[in-house]
Amino acid sequence: MNSVDTNMITDAVQQEIVKAENLAAGYPGKTVWQGANFSFVRGEFVAIIGPNGAGKTLLMRLLLGLQQPIRGTIKTFNSSPKRGNPKIGYVPQRHLIDNDTNIECIELVRLAFSGNKWGFSLSSKNERKIAFDALEAVGAAELAHQPLSALSGGELQRIFLAEALVSNPEILLLDEPLSNLDIRRAKELVQLVNKVVRSRNVTALLVAHDINPLLPYLDKVVYMANGKAATGKPKDVLTSESLTALYGVHIEVIQDSRGNVAIIGIEDHHGDE
Amino acid sequence: MVTNNNIFSPNLLADLQQMFQYQFMQHAFEAGTVIAIIAGIVGYLVVLRRSAFASHALSHIGFAGAAGAVLLGVNPIFGLLTFTCGGGVGMAVLGPRAVNRDVQIGTVLAFMLGLGVLFISLYTGYATEAYSILFGEILGISNNDVLVTVAASLVILAAVGIMYRPLLFASLDEDVAEAKGLSMPLLGIIFMLLVAVAVSIAVQVVGVLLIFSLMVTPAAMARRLAKRPRNAIIISVFIALMATWSSLFIAFYEPYPVSFFITSIVFVSYLFVRYVYPSRICLECREKFSSLYLAKHLQKKHHNI
What we know:
The structure holds 2 protein chains of 2 kinds. By secondary structure, chain A is α/β, with parallel strands linked by helices. Helices cover 33% and strands 25% of the residues of chain A. Chain A has 2 domains: 180 residues, 3-Layer(aba) Sandwich (Rossmann fold), CATH 3.40.50; 74 residues, no CATH class. Chain B is mostly helical. Chain B has a single domain, classed as Orthogonal Bundle (ABC transporter involved in vitamin B12 uptake, BtuC). Chain B has 14 helices and no strands. In chain B, helix 3 packs antiparallel against helix 4, helix 11 crosses helix 12 and helix 11 packs parallel to helix 13. At the A-B interface, strand 5 and helix 3 of A face helix 7, helix 8, helix 11 and helix 14 of B.
């Protein structure tokens, strides 16, 4: 019995593909958040929520190796994050696709696959096939030859998701993919991400303002505000008691009949500007 | 511009034979061809990176260098190269966003033009030097200039050949490219150096003031017409080549500046692409092509399976 337990523990440790201990992040001279502890295993769908300026994007940058922590440790795949890791797919918050960009979607996805390589591609057919498969995986095959400028916000997000998936990553970092979408499109995209997470056993970290469209699918939530981060299962983290205990001010989590939650009290005390 | 002894005949081959009897026409076609190819390629990256104004500014910075070189009795192309490369690296080091700062760039641009005017006024020679730097003088290009142009172009071609995909990726999707491990500061400097060298040689054809017509407008048209970067570059080069060749051809018979013909041809083509080229038909084509491709692709897949 005992040996089985240890086996299960080592399995769990091995599968921890993101782990942070006493992590603090910020910019020179300014700590945005600190004391964060969390770990994510393979195949988890995690939401990172919190108000503007809480440091959600900062967490993405740490995981991408674009920035170093102020204190503590962060590990991806049991080592310090390194820039350019193909096992991490990334959808940034803003894409500078302007209205005159007539380039077709498949070319953008293809660049995400081979754009960091020198010289010309020897096998453009093979690359286009790989890009097309990534588009197919997000249900955007019919958009492959549409120009980027002709797409709607929801369609663009699917292309960006394909761009992130093309290198066959094990971690997906999605920075506010829902921010410009209406409720219906947001729901569709969340369902798509969920499908990707479950079918490919990918760990997805999705940054959002509003947790409600995500709630039915989440394994974990990281709630960031006022320089702190709370992590756990949504039903454990998003309660009046746990958030009040964490932040030391009265916070109320209200739930409606359909399970939607509203967090009240934190925005007033959001004062790191 | 040339002579009045040459009369245009409907036999184009005979016309060209007659043209190429003159060495200056040979040089003009050689340099013009090489420059059009380079301007078409680099111009597409400029447009994709939204750095059109920065490239315009670089040519003005180059004016001060060219005028200074004239003053010192050096070949203007070396003054141009020195100043544009210095200015380009400076802009890149100030940060990628510096390239989009209109007011600051404009301020530096005006100062450099002023500096150029000072150098020209200090130079006691002919004002034609200033005129040809400002508006181009491809018909007066020397054998030596052709060699410098070809050498500079080979350097650009090699650099673009090696860094084609990273440059494209960084221009199109900077944040993802950075996360994929590409160095944005390094690519920024390389890109600005490419533009600097391309601008310096293109000045010989259209001059510092008309640089847009070769470096930006053909590429802007290509961007509208093509959906794949490679095709866009081919179109951009094609337009720049056609404009240069036909302008040289016309200028052989008509007493007006080559740069006037280039700018006019490019401008009219731009208007055509922008307003006349039917965007609705274009959209229909897109739909047709995309469904065709899809059908073909799916068929292939089935075959494979």
